[in-house]
Amino acid sequence: MHIANFHYVLMALIGAGGGLISGTVGLAGGIFIVPALVALLGTQAMGDAISVSFFAVLLNSLSSTIENRKSRGKGAYWALVNGAGWYTSGAAVAALIVAILFGRHQDAISKPLLASLQLLLAICMLIPRRWYESLRAARTRLKDATVGSIVGGVSTLIGVGGGTYTIFYFLVHGRDIKDCTLTSNFVGIFIGLMGIFGYYGGTLMSTGGSLAGDHGISTLEKGVLIGFGVIASPLGVRLQSRLPAPAIKKIVVIVLACSASYVLLRA
């Protein structure tokens, strides 16, 4: 196979992997896409990998959310979404601010930082359920908005949709994990959207009105990656409906642990 064609195949596989992760476990796909692109293209592509991931996070989350709405019904879907309004608002505002700063200072993200934040995500999911119950407390608007802003900021820093933190937060407050993944996809839409606006806005401000060149990822390759993610996300939602909740949690932990370990070893 010609090397250029093989590159497109790799982009398709990375995009599809991110989409399946988004639909199945509610992580939007960035947690897989960023390390995969950095491994493929090198550390110099970190900024470009994160910017591509923002688009994937937005569209994968949107695709998964639409499929969830179809499968669950309008009433059940909106009940879950409306219960996360303040959390989502906090995440969106923080994502925009952090993305602007990242767009202006793209060298601020290192591979050890990326891996450490991913590893923290995995640790969150390893906390036993009985601990969730001991941590459980009443949700308030201020609490939702504060935690959402922290999640939005940290997630944007590494180009992900905040899925694991969002899942963990709503698990602590009593939601079923499949409901948590739906909420996570909904929040991921806004983190991805604000990430795109903030990143490119910050980049334009720091360069005086011009965008930096790509580091090995052509526009067509980005389109292939994002397109296959959008196609695979609904398939992930359908797969989730057939999986027991404990299996979904295990998949989340395995994906995060493998991603973090790989990046740490390559750092």
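The record above closes out task 2.4. Task 2.5 opens with a second protein, given below.
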Amino acid sequence: MKLSSAILSFALAAASAAASAADGLIELKSQHAAKATMDKLEELVKQRGLSVFARIDHAAGAAKVNKSLRATELLIFGNPQGGTPLMECAQTAGIDLPLKALVWEDAAGQVWLGYNDPAYLAQRHGAAACPVVENLRKALGGLAEATVAR
């Protein structure tokens, strides 16, 4: 009886820990400082022919209102060739496009790169079978891996 209670407690703790993670967010540890990670991501995005629509420095924004925030930057990027096919499957996916990637430094000083999993976005919009999803996943995954690698 005690063993089954311990197993149940462990399972509940694991489930609540998993539930606290952002749904559909893929996170990779970076081997670089936050600014260097974002600079590398932006450079790779441009090299691959994608448009950069905005680079938002959330820490700088926080400083403008006398708040402190560890390094946190958002890159908004993409192109119609990648996004339009997803919106053809589900036009509401336009709320999640263009693509976004976030670079942040956690409380321990570890830098992370995170982005929305295209499969999660497709599922969210009822387009899980959309043929472009796998291509988007591969493209984003390759971009993210290249960014965080040494």
